[in-house]
């Protein structure tokens, strides 16, 4: 986990650095005594975690926390236990009371790592934006954002875009495995359509890109459930 620390006390930062070196999954990239410099660093570098002192002379850690993006976890550090409630009101990962012992530091870091792993598992990988298909001896790129529908004819598929058609040797089942499920729907044994391109739904067909595509009764109900 990539992290930074912000504290107006250099001694406190030194302790965090010492603890951080003992945690294998932690990478303490920088320490700051200035909130302005720390926030500037965060704007330029993706950081997973920040150790944040609450009581500082020019701005409180609570105020800094409100300026940090949700993608960065926060562990508050302070010598004043009365600030603990503020930390949990902001839904921070943990709250460390100074002087910070290593076992307590490790516990907080482990909690941050578990939260990150859970978030990544929930979010999953981003949907692909394109697909390469073989055309003759070459490979051509199909941009999924512009793809209207795919038409099957035996073991060949035609990818229909507004200004282009691409024919490739592939089955519809193979195409379904490569395409993001949430963006495309099978409406007929020979057709896959881009859900966000559907303009009109009729009893036995859908319209997209000015083209009418047949819809089989067996697929119509599931399509309506996804759209309505």
TrEMBL record:
Keywords: Phosphoprotein. The modification 4-aspartylphosphate is found at residue 53. Residues 2-113 form the Response regulatory domain. It comes from the Bacteria. Residues 147-228 form the HTH LytTR-type domain. Pfam families: LytTR, Response_reg. Gene3D superfamilies: 3.40.50.2300, LytTr DNA-binding domain (2.40.50.1020). This is Response regulator transcription factor. One of its GO terms (molecular function) is DNA binding.
């Amino acid at each position: 986990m990539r992290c930074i620390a912000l504290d107006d006390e250099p001694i406190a930062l030194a302790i965090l650095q010492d603890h951080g070196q003992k945690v294998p999954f932690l990478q303490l990239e920088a320490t700051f005594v200035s909130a302005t410099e720390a926030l500037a660093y965060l704007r330029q570098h993706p950081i997973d975690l920040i150790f944040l002192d609450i009581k500082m002379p020019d701005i409180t850690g609570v105020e800094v926390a409100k300026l940090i993006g949700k993608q960065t976890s926060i562990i508050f550090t302070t010598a004043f236990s009365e600030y603990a409630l503020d930390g949990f009101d902001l839904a921070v990962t943990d709250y460390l009371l100074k002087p910070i012992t290593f076992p307590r530091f490790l516990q907080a870091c482990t909690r941050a790592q578990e939260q990150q792993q859970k978030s990544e598992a929930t979010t999953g990988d981003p949907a692909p934006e394109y697909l390469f298909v073989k055309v003759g001896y070459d490979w051509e790129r199909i941009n999924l954002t512009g793809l209207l529908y795919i038409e099957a004819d035996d073991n060949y598929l035609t990818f229909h875009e507004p200004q282009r058609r691409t024919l490739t040797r592939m089955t519809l089942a193979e195409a379904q495995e490569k395409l993001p499920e949430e963006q495309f729907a099978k409406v007929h044994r020979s057709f896959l359509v881009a859900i966000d391109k559907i303009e009109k739904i009729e009893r036995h067909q859908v319209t997209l890109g000015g083209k009418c595509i047949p819809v089989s009764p067996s697929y119509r109900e599931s399509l309506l459930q996804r759209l309505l």
